Amino acid sequence: MITQTNKFKLFNDPIYGFIAIPSALVFDLIEHPTFQRLRRISQLGLSSLVYAGANHTRFHHALGSMHLMQRAIHVLQSKGHAISGTEAEAVFVAILLHDIGHGPFSHALENSLVDNVSHESISTMLMAKLNKDFGGKLDMAIDIFRDKHPKRFLHQLISSQLDMDRLDYLKRDAFYTGVVEGVINSERLLAMLNVANNELVMEQKGITSIEKFLVSRSLMYWQVYMHKTVLSAEYMLAQVLKRANELAQSGTELFAGKSLAFFLAHRPNKQDFMDNPEVLEAFTLLDDADITGAMKQWMHFDDPVLSQLCTRLINRQLFQLRFLEQDVSEQQRSYLATSIHKAHGIPMDLTAQFMLEGVASNATYRSDSQEIKILKRDGEVIPLTKASEILPISVYTHTIIRPFICWPKNIPWKD
Fold first, then answer.
1. Confidence band of 367 (pLDDT split at 50, 70, 90)
2. In what order do the strands lie in the sheet with 193-196?
């Protein structure tokens, strides 16, 4: 007796309730090992060290984004815009796979394992690989993802300043962190979607919801994504991988799984990915567990930098972080280096690895890129910068830049 798998299943999501799988192709993609890997990639890196509930994954986010895309397509079709069944399925596939190229701990290790290769580039390469596996069924989805499809508004639903990716991650991250200031009214925003001149637009009566969305996004950046302790933990994790990479490339043998050992020893660039299919295959075998498992072993390694950083991360003994009003002086660097050397037994030539500097920055809205377009009641389309009703758009477009330094907590700062 021949049985056929039921591919039209439901996921029970804590944010939206039941999420339907819209087609057999989407079901098969979700079942594919490359997509299942997203269950093991944290959505918010190390934010769970601050917000204990923030253990959701890229898998959750991808399904949520696809659910919102189904709602968006239904809204646009109900307003008379022609979107065929084939196009709808293609845009569902494109949003489902939009983050498939994320590495372990998502943005926290964006360029620690690879040399200047963005997760968007890896997503594109993985889509091409999946397209071969599925006999070319992803052609249109890839065109939409790369903005090559004639209906440009379909791409804007995936990548723009008010796309399904942002609508899901803001609502989902606010839910799992418990930061209620980040909650957005995604249903109202979806209901206001429209298309004009082949561009995605928002109806004028939705402006207040857009402004609330922008405020929520700004608050989430500084309360969650750029939280001082989150930044400290993620910079420490990046430093762990940097030190492991230095040791591996010098010939030191480190405990690591096969795929992680390869990336530590080679740190491939984009050309390496393109020239050698095994690099991409190795990347699909990496997830958070590889890094965490390695760090638990590196805690006992004889290199003081690697062992101490790993011990601190595993036991949540994180560096303190200070946002800077001015550059760190040489006198301050010398003081910190000497103090780290004395307090932790770190050789003077390695103390810089315990003084981590970076820049946190965010612009809630980019008026110099693709603007959110507003469809007025008379049919005119204007940019949001000319339509804002409550707050001046400069509130959203202002870029906040905060240089910082982090170092061990038991050493006080001296001005």
1. low
2. 193-196, 199-203, 373-375, 381-383
